[in-house]
């Protein structure tokens, strides 16, 4: 495992993040606390140091298990959690990124995680009802209080992220250094604006669902073995066709299909850190094998082509108009 800086901070974070969304004793597709401990131990042994959870994951069980598993060694980990999803559906102020919910959510997460500070605190999803000024000021206060060290934002339009960090810069407040978004071979929309925005603003990108909810791990294509929890009928033909290409590339390289899908994600940008979710230790150990895989150019192109992804307007229009706008000499200018 190698490490990178978290955005424009000095915090060192591992190439791969560990997702704890499945940590819960009574979740049929989850990892109970004993299995969660084995997963975290193996991840740490491999050099991983970022554990990602949220206040609402499994009704709080995820945070509680993370706090228990990290007891006695918490300072060796970068603990990331999120707020914004409702704590009580009957209370209109128990959700969103406003100051009141931030304060109550943060205190809840600190208690569950058995810690006095959160290393990376995310706004879980854009709250269009709360002014960005309020959110950024309240988050900055949490940082100044020492209860939060670094800030992140998840599942939010790129223009909102850019405006938030511009506000922070202009008013000498703490900016977001991390962006969390769905990204992988089956979800390339982030390439339109989110990835370019993150790179321009110097933000790290935590990519959730890099394996498409398990579709790219190969289980669906191993017909009849019962290893996949995803009903085949719920997956589109497009996604299945991409999974077949991933399997073919993996067979050609002699590796697992999950390695190929994860290696493709990290090859797109050095800003990207895939989040590995695991229900069993064996799943984590298999996915960690992607660390050693560098995909050849022909494999990358084949995977790109398989998705049929189009960046869309205005990006494709700008690309196609380069010669018209900048003339023949434009092609001679190195960026």
From TrEMBL:
Q: What Pfam families does the database record attribute to this sequence?
A: Aldo_ket_red
Annotated CDD domains: AKR_AKR9A_9B
Identify the residues that the record assigns to the NADP-dependent oxidoreductase domain, covering every copy.
16-305
- Kindly state which keywords UniProt assigns to this record, in alphabetical order: Oxidoreductase
Gene3D superfamilies, A to Z: NADP-dependent oxidoreductase domain (3.20.20.100)
Determine the domain of life of the protein's source: Bacteria
Query: Where in the sequence is the signal peptide annotated?
Result: none
Q: What is this protein called?
A: Aldo/keto reductase
Q: Which organism is it from?
A: Actinomycetospora endophytica
């Amino acid at each position: 495992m190698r490490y990178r800086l978290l955005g424009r901070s000095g915090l060192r974070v591992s190439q791969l993040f560990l997702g704890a969304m499945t940590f819960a004793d009574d979740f049929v597709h989850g990892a109970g606390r004993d299995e969660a401990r084995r997963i975290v131990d193996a991840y740490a042994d491999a050099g991983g140091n970022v554990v990602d959870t949220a206040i609402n994951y499994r009704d709080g069980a995820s945070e509680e298990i993370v706090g228990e598993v990290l007891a006695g060694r918490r300072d060796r980990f970068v603990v990331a959690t999120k707020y914004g999803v409702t704590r009580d559906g009957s209370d209109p102020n128990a959700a969103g990124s406003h100051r009141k919910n931030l304060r109550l959510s943060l205190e809840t997460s600190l208690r569950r995680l058995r810690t006095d500070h959160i290393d990376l605190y995310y706004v879980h999803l854009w709250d269009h009802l709360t002014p960005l000024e309020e959110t950024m000021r309240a988050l900055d206060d949490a940082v100044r209080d020492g209860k939060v060290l670094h800030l992140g934002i998840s599942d939010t339009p790129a223009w909102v992220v850019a405006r938030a960090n511009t506000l922070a810069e202009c008013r000498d407040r703490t900016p977001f250094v991390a962006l969390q978004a769905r990204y992988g071979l089956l979800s390339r929309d982030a390439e339109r604006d989110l990835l370019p925005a993150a790179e321009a603003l110097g933000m790290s990108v935590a990519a959730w669902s890099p394996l498409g909810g398990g579709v790219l791990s190969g289980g669906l294509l191993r017909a009849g073995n019962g290893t996949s929890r995803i009903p085949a009928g719920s997956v589109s033909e497009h996604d299945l066709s991409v999974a077949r290409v991933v399997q073919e590339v993996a067979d050609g390289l002699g590796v697992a299909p999950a390695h190929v899908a994860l290696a493709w994600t990290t090859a797109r940008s050095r800003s990207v850190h895939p989040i590995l979710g695991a229900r069993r230790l064996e799943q984590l150990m298999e996915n960690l094998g992607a660390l050693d895989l560098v995909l050849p150019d022909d494999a990358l192109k084949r995977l790109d082509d398989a998705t049929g992804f189009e960046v869309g307007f205005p990006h494709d229009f700008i690309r196609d108009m380069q010669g018209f706008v900048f003339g023949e000499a434009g092609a001679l200018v190195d960026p």
